[in-house]
Automatic annotation (TrEMBL):
It comes from the Eukaryota. InterPro entries: Endo/exonu/phosph_ase_sf, Swc5/CFDP1/2. The lineage of its organism: Eukaryota, Metazoa, Spiralia, Lophotrochozoa, Mollusca. This is Craniofacial development protein 2-like. Gene3D superfamilies: Endonuclease/exonuclease/phosphatase.
Amino acid sequence: MLLYLWVKSMKPGSKTLIYSGGHTHERGVGILFDVTTAKSLGSWCPISDRVVEAKLVAKSINLGIIQVYASTSDSEDVEVEGFYEEIEKAKGNLKSQDIKIVMGDFNAKVWDDRVEDVVEPSGTGTVNERGKRLIEWCQVNDFTITNTWYQNHPRRQWTWKSPGDRSRNKLHPHSEKIRKRCRNIEVTAGSRL
């Protein structure tokens, strides 16, 4: 599969986008950095058109960001498992002492019930198969779905809404290795960059 890989400065002195994706508009994943954060970008690695990893270098500890865009909920199980293997490959590029954040669109819904050290009771109320798989992955890898741990206004929780604004979902876009490092998770409303 041919991947387009690039780093692009969107405006001089403004934002930097790293991107990994195919030649269609169906796939692709990227991370957008402001000018200050981009100066800390030590390295990045395109894993696939669904997973990209970036390392931000700091004085005391580095931050590894793994940005993902999961396949849809009607995808074959083999494709879903391949996606999680790609996340593992990205994690393998980071050092054990690096802080690791895996975030993006998992196409996963998790329920309101607490799952020890993974989910707190502010999920969507329903769960889908991708949500069950995400919870399982978090349990095995000692990650937390952090946006279920904070009670924010609903408009700061929704990460997806259907065309025509008929339904909204929290797709649980954020997992973090060590929950105590995270103070809050909020969704930025709209598409302002």
